[in-house]
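User: Please fill in residues for this 101-position structure.
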């Protein structure tokens, strides 16, 4: 799908989500320097997303604040975080930090 077709297919709150995801991607040095591997809209969850080369997905649904998603591809478990650093730490250390708390 071409970029213009994708953007034109988004409705009002989905377009707001797209803008929020784009702003989140562009506002941080750590994310701005990563390639975006996929951009899309999940019709089942309502999430607009940018999937980054480091396997973190920046996503938003219904114009709400962005979340940072990690997915364990072995068991399908998804983890949502409020910040990019939380998602990075989870990828590096897993549940170790939350288990120690």
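Assistant: Residues filled in for all 101 positions:
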């Amino acid at each position: 799908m071409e970029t213009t077709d994708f953007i034109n297919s988004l409705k009002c709150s989905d377009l707001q989500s797209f803008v929020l995801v784009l702003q989140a991607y562009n506002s941080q040095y750590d994310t701005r320097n990563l390639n975006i591997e996929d951009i899309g809209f999940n019709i089942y969850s309502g999430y607009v997303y940018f999937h980054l080369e480091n396997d973190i997905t920046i996503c938003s649904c219904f114009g709400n604040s962005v979340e940072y998603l990690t997915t364990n591809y072995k068991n399908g478990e998804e983890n949502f975080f409020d910040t990019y650093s939380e998602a990075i730490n989870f990828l590096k250390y897993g549940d170790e930090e939350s288990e120690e708390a």
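For context: The CA atoms of residues 89 and 96 lie 10 Å apart.
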